[in-house]
Each structure stands twice: as C-alpha cells, then as structure tokens.
Amino acid sequence: MGLPYFEIIGGPRLRGSVRLSGAKNAALPILAASILCEGEVVLRDVPRVADVASLTELLAKLGVDVEWRADGSLKLIARDEMNCRAEYDIVRKMRASICVLGPLLAKRHRAQVSMPGGCAIGDRPVDLHLRAMRELGAEIELINGDIVAKSKRLRGTEMFLGGPFGSTVLGTANAMMAAVLADGLTVIEMAACEPEVVDLANFLNQCGAAISGQGTPRIVIEGVKELHGCEYTIIPDRIEAGTFMVAAAITNGELTLENARLDHLMAFVDRLAAIGVNVEKNDKGVVVSSARRLEPVDVTTQPFPGFPTDLQAQIMALLCLADGNSVITEKIFPDRFLHVAELARMGARLRKEGPTVIVQGVKRLVAAPVMASDLRASAALVLAGLAARGTTRVHRIYHLERGYQQLDDKLRAVGAEIQRKEGDEV
Ligand code: EPZ
C-alpha cells in the first residue's frame, strides 16, 4: 500500500463551526517538561498528531509512563531516570525532540541528544540552546553527532538569548525548563514571547515553579527544589486557527472558530483585515467571512507578536487570489518557500527574490497534483486546492499530519470536498 494523499475538489464555500485542537507547539515542550515532575501530570487537549506520537515514543524510552485516557487526556509519570539519551532515529524525525535537553539536564544531570540536522525549512542551528545550558553551568561536548551534556546542580544566571533572527521559541523553552530546578535566580533576556512559551511557563508554575515575566522578553525564574505533577489544559492552536481563517476567506465562506484566541493572532488578523476579510468575535466564537474582492497586502514574518512564520505559506495561498501584487518577506526562516513552486503549478504567479516573494494575484487557481514538503507548506496547498477549479491531489501529506489533527475531517464537516486516500506512489 502506498502513502496517503488528499484529493480535493475545489469550489464549495465553507460554512459552519470548528473546534480547534490544542496547540502542537505548546504541547511538545509541556510533554517534555513531564521529565521534571514528581508524580502524575494530566494534560487535556493534547492534539493527536504525529509529532506528539513521536515525542511520547521518545518519552517512553526515557522512562516516562505515557497513557492516553478514555476522556482524551494524556497522563504522564516519570518513573525511571536511567536512560538520558535521545537517539538520532527520533530526533531526525522531529527536531522538537531537542526540548528534552533542558529537562534531562535539570532533573537527571546528564543528557545525550542527537544534534538535529537541517530540515525542509532551512538551516536550524541549536547554538542558543547550548549557550543557555552552558550559562547555567552545564558542560557540553559534541560526540559522534550527539550533544553530550553534564552538570551537577545547575546554577541560576543572567543570560541573553537573542540570535541573528531574534528570539528562539524552543531555546527559551529549554532554558526555562533547565532553570526551574537550578540554584537561585535565572533571568532570560530577549526571551521568546510566543503564547506557547507562556503556556509552558504557566504549566511549570502549576507544578510548583516560580516563573514570572512570561510573554515579555525578560523571563525571571526562581529555582525551586522540586516540581510536582498537575492537571493542565493546553491552549488552542493559533496556527490551526489561522489556517481555518484562510480556509473561510479563500472559499468566500463563513466559519466560526469556537475556541480561537484573537489575542494570539493580532498580527495575522491585522493582515486579514487589510485584505478585506471580516473577523469578529461573538458569543459563539470568532467568525471569519470574506467579501469577494481580496486586496493585496505586504506581509513580513517576525517573532511574536509579529506575523507568525507558521502562517506565511497559508497567507501566500490566499494572496495568490488577491486583486494586485503582494510582497511576502520571511524574516525567521529565509528559505521557507518550498510551497512557491508547488503553488505555481496551480497557476499562481510568484517571483522569489531572496527572502521575499512577490505575489501577483490571479483570477483563479487551477487544480494540479502537488507535493507537500513541510507541515505548513502542505496546509497552503490544501487551502489552494479548496479554491482551485478541478481536482487537486496533495501528495506526501505525512508532513501535514505531523501537526494538524484530522484536517480533512474538520474541513469536510464544514462543507469541503476532501478525501484522504491511500495508495499514492509519489
Ligand atoms: C518553533 O521552532 C516552532 N516549533 C516552529 O514551528 C516555528 O516555526 C518556530 O518556532 C518560529 O516561530 C516548535 O515549537 C516545535 P526558533 P524553533 O528557535 O523553536 C534561529 C511548525 O510548523 N535560531 O524560534 O526551533 C532559527 O534558525 C514549526 O509548527 C538560532 O539561530 O524556532 C530561526 O531563524 C516549524 N539558533 C530563529 O532563530 C538557535 O539555537 C527562530 O527559530 C535556535 C534558533
């Protein structure tokens, strides 16, 4: 049997309500943080996506009991502290495995994590993660492609965590998770402000940590002796929310996103408003609808609260149909443009100049077989398929399934003609 793919018949206007899953990028570091806790951690709204499955597999190898319960929550208990190694096999599948580094060092005083390589969205160094661990007192060596880290008890310190592209989301998460059990006070300057970092800090605080300043560029962590377990609900996925907002807009439909948080999507909604998409909150949720004419706009990705890189591909799909020229500039991952050539196969007019793409709006997109290359690029192709004339096949959707929970089912429930099929040879 071949690989699964999506078959999409473009055209139907989407209408109805969608409940968003919990945020993948909040869930992953929070799951890793279970290594730090004594006792039971129960997480609600953990999305059932492939990346979460990869991380639970890794955590099981690291001695954490992992159990999906009948009510959909996930129970984690760290029992066995012997194994401290995250092997290449799993890290190569999912770079976010790097977020076990901080918890292992803090709790078990040693960690061996395979060095993540590049990925489809470009070079992705981890120098800032390593800097954070060193500043907290860890000794780090690179042996046979593994990061080998050791420490006695980590020491609180003041650190600057900015790099050439600004703050780092998982780097900040790792630094925070390492510092919670360190001796004394840690200050992270130029910390990432993303809602997922805030969610991790809130989770850790519920487990007995003393973190303040989350959501600002200066996070302060007072080390504590130990963390206990807790019950916690993961925030709704803002990237999934943005993806459905584009789905409503690109089909001239109207969707209500029941649990979307507009405070997590301000820059994105600002651009949608400039395009002419209506976004309003009422007592049922956030309602997104679109006028027929889409205005061209300029978009630049930035760290939060700026426009998220994880919605760059999706807004490009929408702007392909705007009435004029838009300019999209990628300031986080300058090579994150693999969707450009695939969208062009569907009739989009796009010109890439370095980290910028000029999008010349066209009247319509046409269906074509296209290939997913990374998670968000795949979502952009699905969105384009919803609007295109004809039947689009999106191949290699295993990329998409790393981060979207049942995207096909959710889209079908609001009127899309989308089927997940098996047997793809591509
Ligand atoms: C997180 O990756 C997300 N992943 C990514 O989501 C997201 O695109 C990214 O943040 C930016 O928002 C998870 O949360 C699991 P970064 P992360 O460190 O933390 C440079 C998705 O589609 N940098 O904030 O790895 C880096 O190269 C994914 O769900 C260094 O220079 O990203 C980039 O230019 C893909 N040195 C910038 O910082 C470092 O040590 C921001 O990256 C680390 C990063």
Topology:
Blueprint: E1 3-9, E2 15-18, H1 24-33, E3 37-38, E4 40-44, H2 50-61, E5 64-68, E6 74-78, E7 85-86, H3 88-91, H4 101-108, E8 110-114, H5 127-135, E9 139-143, E10 146-150, E11 158-160, H6 169-179, E12 185-189, H7 195-206, E13 210-212, E14 218-222, E15 227-228, E16 231-233, H8 238-250, E17 254-257, H9 266-275, E18 277-282, E19 285-290, E20 298-300, H10 312-319, E21 325-329, H11 339-345, E22 349-353, E23 356-360, E24 369-371, H12 375-387, E25 391-395, H13 407-413, E26 417-424
Parallel strand pairs: 2-17, 3-15, 4-16, 7-8, 11-12, 20-21, 24-25
Antiparallel strand pairs: 1-25, 1-26, 4-6, 5-6, 8-10, 9-10, 12-14, 13-14, 17-19, 18-19, 21-23, 22-23
Helix pairs in contact: 1-2, 1-7, 4-6, 5-6, 6-7, 8-10, 8-12, 10-12
Bound molecules: ligand EPZ.
Q: Number of DSSP strands?
A: 26
List of distinct ligands in this structure? ligand EPZ
CATH homologous superfamily classification of the largest domain: Enolpyruvate transferase domain
Instruction: Compute the number of helices.
Output: 13
Under the CATH scheme, which architecture of the largest domain would be assigned?
A: Alpha-beta prism
Write down the CATH topology of the largest domain: UDP-n-acetylglucosamine1-carboxyvinyl-transferase, Chain
Strand portion: 25-35%
Low-confidence stretches: none
Q: What number of domains?
A: 2
Strand arrangement, largest sheet? 24-25-1-26
Q: Rg to the nearest angstrom?
A: 21 Å
Q: How confident is the prediction overall: mean pLDDT?
A: 96
The end-to-end span amounts to 12 Å
Give the overall form.
globular
